[in-house]
């Protein structure tokens, strides 16, 4: 008897907005592979039961999005070093009956930044990261992995910022990392080689992100993990100054690559065609 085609999922609450099925279904069709990728709404109270049952439901694994990343990590029997450092997973599978997890947000951010600003790391002595939430944890871990000498976290909540500083020190005790506030942001930008927005500010239906980029050096790179809208005001301002800019949609696409390869056995590529497919969906053109 032939093996059934692999099925994967993305779970979250809510989940209707997820573009992950669009991405993975595109790759399945492009590569001529049998399989399916489904989005499933899972309430927080039902997460443990779903994670215990998904192999019996015919799934080989899947993705985890908000608000389940940290809770799913706690359910895993085995995790990668990256997931262990962040205490959060976004990619699941099973081995020997055990639930395993990884966090591909780090690799996704770096791949996107490499694609949009090749060689950025060679000149990056200081990075400024806006925000201290879950996304910021992945970004800080990514910057540490690339050896960025100095990182400054700019956040409204000092307590959340201190938590992120502590996490960075657990990853690398020698890492130079500081916490600042928005009132001092213009001073921080003067010596920044990279600015990353990890907050929801500037996202559709959210308050705007107001940052004056005039103090940034002319070689600086600006990245925004927000991808709705596709081109945030921050990225528009960066391009208007002639700075290299890296969008959130690229990070979404690149973080999906490792999971697809694990579940379906082939490593896919992020192409302009895929980018435009998802971009059209975000613009409401499909």
Highlighted features:
single chain, 286 residues, alpha/beta, Rossmann fold, 2 domains, six-stranded parallel β-sheet, 12 strands, 38% helix
Model description:
By secondary structure, this protein is of the alpha/beta class. The chain folds into 2 domains: 125 residues, Leucine Dehydrogenase, chain A, domain 1 (Rossmann fold), CATH 3.40.50.10860; 144 residues, Rossmann fold. 38% of the residues lie in helices and 20% in strands. The protein has 12 helices and 12 strands. A 6-stranded mixed sheet has the order 2-1-3-5-6-4, with helices on both faces. Strands 9-8-7-10-11-12 form a 6-stranded parallel sheet, sandwiched between helices. Helix 5 packs across helix 6 and helix 6 packs parallel to helix 7. The longest helix has 14 residues.
Give the arrangement of secondary structure elements:
Elements: E1 7-12, H1 20-31, E2 36-41, H2 47-53, E3 59-64, H3 69-75, E4 78-79, H4 81-86, E5 91-95, E6 98-102, H5 105-116, E7 126-130, H6 134-145, E8 150-154, H7 158-171, E9 176-180, H8 185-189, E10 194-197, E11 221-224, H9 233-240, E12 244-246, H10 248-255, H11 257-264, H12 272-282
Parallel strand pairs: 1-2, 1-3, 4-6, 7-8, 7-10, 8-9, 10-11, 11-12
Antiparallel strand pairs: 3-5, 5-6
Helix pairs in contact: 5-6, 5-10, 6-7
Give the structure's gist in a few sentences:
It contains twelve helices and twelve strands. The protein has 286 residues and is α/β, with parallel strands linked by helices. The strands form two sheets. It has a six-stranded mixed sheet, sandwiched between helices.
């Amino acid at each position: 008897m032939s093996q059934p085609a692999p099925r994967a999922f993305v779970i979250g609450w809510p989940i209707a907005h997820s573009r992950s099925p669009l991405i993975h279904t595109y790759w399945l069709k492009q590569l001529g592979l049998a399989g399916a990728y489904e989005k499933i709404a899972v309430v927080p109270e039902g997460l443990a039961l779903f994670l215990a049952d998904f192999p019996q439901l015919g799934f080989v694994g899947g993705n985890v999005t908000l608000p389940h990343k940290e809770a799913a990590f706690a359910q895993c029997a085995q995790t990668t070093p990256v997931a262990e450092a962040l205490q959060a997973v976004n990619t699941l599978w099973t081995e020997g009956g055990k639930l395993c997890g990884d966090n591909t947000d780090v690799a996704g951010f770096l791949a996107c930044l490499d694609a949009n600003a090749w060689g950025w790391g060679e000149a990056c002595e200081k990075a400024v990261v806006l925000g201290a939430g879950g996304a910021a944890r992945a970004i800080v871990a990514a910057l540490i992995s690339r050896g960025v000498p100095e990182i400054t976290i700019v956040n409204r909540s000092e307590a959340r910022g201190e938590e992120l500083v502590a996490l960075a020190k657990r990853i690398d005790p020698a890492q130079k990392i500081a916490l600042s506030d928005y009132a001092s942001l213009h001073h921080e930008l003067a010596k920044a080689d990279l600015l990353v927005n990890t907050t929801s500010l500037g996202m559709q239906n959210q308050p705007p992100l107001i940052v004056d980029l005039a103090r940034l050096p002319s070689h600086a790179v600006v990245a925004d993990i927000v991808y709705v809208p596709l081109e945030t005001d921050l990225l528009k301002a960066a391009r208007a100054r002639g700075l290299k800019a890296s969008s959130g949609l690229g990070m979404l696409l690149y973080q999906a690559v490792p999971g697809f390869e694990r579940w379906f056995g082939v490593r896919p590529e992020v192409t302009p065609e895929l980018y435009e497919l998802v971009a059209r969906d975000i613009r409401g053109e499909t």
